[in-house]
Protein: Oxidoreductase
Organism: Triticum urartu
Amino acid sequence: MEMVLAAAANCTGALSSNHAKTFLKSRRSSVQMRDCRSGPAAPLAVSSAAAPEVPRPVRLGIMGCGSIARKVARSMLLVPAADVAAVASRSEGKARLFAADNGLRSGTRIHGSYEALLDDPDVDAVYMPLPTSLHVKWGTAAAERGKHLLLEKPTAPCAADLEPILAACEANGVQFMDSTMWMHHPRTAKMRQLVADQDTIGDVRFINTMVSFLANEDFLQNDIRVKPDLDGLGVLGDIGWYCIRGILWAVDYELPKNVVALHHPVKNQAGVLLACGASLYWADGKVATFHCSFLTNLTMDLTVVGTNGTIHVTDLVIPYEEKSAPFSVDSKTNFAELSTGWDPHPSKHVVTTDLPQEGLMVQEFCRLVQGIRDAGVKPEGKWPGITRKTQIVVDAVKASIDNGFESVDVAS
């Protein structure tokens, strides 16, 4: 039986800030009404409970015009809390073309350098889809200028390089978030409830993730993800990041005790990983495995196995459809009589959303920024903590590959 779980995105606040101010002004002004029975005009009593002001949108700057930026820019246009204020590239012409091609408003400012974007006083936050090798320099610079930071993954070449970025964000009171989009889909929250439910899933004992796609020859020769000086982690940093995040998500971000890379990874001539995997081990006996590849058919699987049940997802990173996402649950399953089948059958679930997951990511990022800017709340520490742990495990897998597939202890 298929269950449809409506999880509509919060799309309130669609008024522009100017319209909202006009609306509120009209609400607050006294209204004169003539009573035909008493003659003179009398002021109509106005309720003291004025409508709440719509928070001012977060003014976002896009730093870099790569292909992933097009997807995120589209989502920004869907989120009332976001305003794409500026776009920057190393070429002003490229930035201008990006703005035109992606339907950004005519008032979007165009910058021909990253430095100019960071110096723009009308930018509150920066979305940074630059090559990983540039993240330390520009991520740190953004935070030091007081810009909140939404950073593409992998967030750094290694955990040691991530630390200056996170430290700069903390020192300057700005929000940090990486752009692992599936984390913000309402399906993920629903699955989290079930994983935490002892009766449904029980104690998690095994996790497996597989993420891959068949890259064409142009990708394998020219994409930044296969260039050692741009994204030296290759497939491990790109889609291996999703595998590792999925595993950590399933165990509520408990770091494994040790990691052992799988033998026979595939590298290109420059030594960049094109396919690899690893096994992760916890002190209490939990085990996880993952495989990621640029060389095999499109696959985005996550399986979480507990003592009482199992969750299966087959489109983890990018759902089959933008506004609905399925998963299945086997709970307290056994063999049918004479082992002729399963009893009960898996339950199928579909979680719907009005906004695509990248829009929900932008919406949550803007909500946090608005809280810091408008209410003086502190940045949410959950997101940099999750990023740090993901990067630590990526490092451990890379170290095991580099050291002949030896077991690598994971720092706490």
In short: DSSP finds twelve helices and 21 strands in the chain. Confidence is low (pLDDT under 50) at residues 1-48.
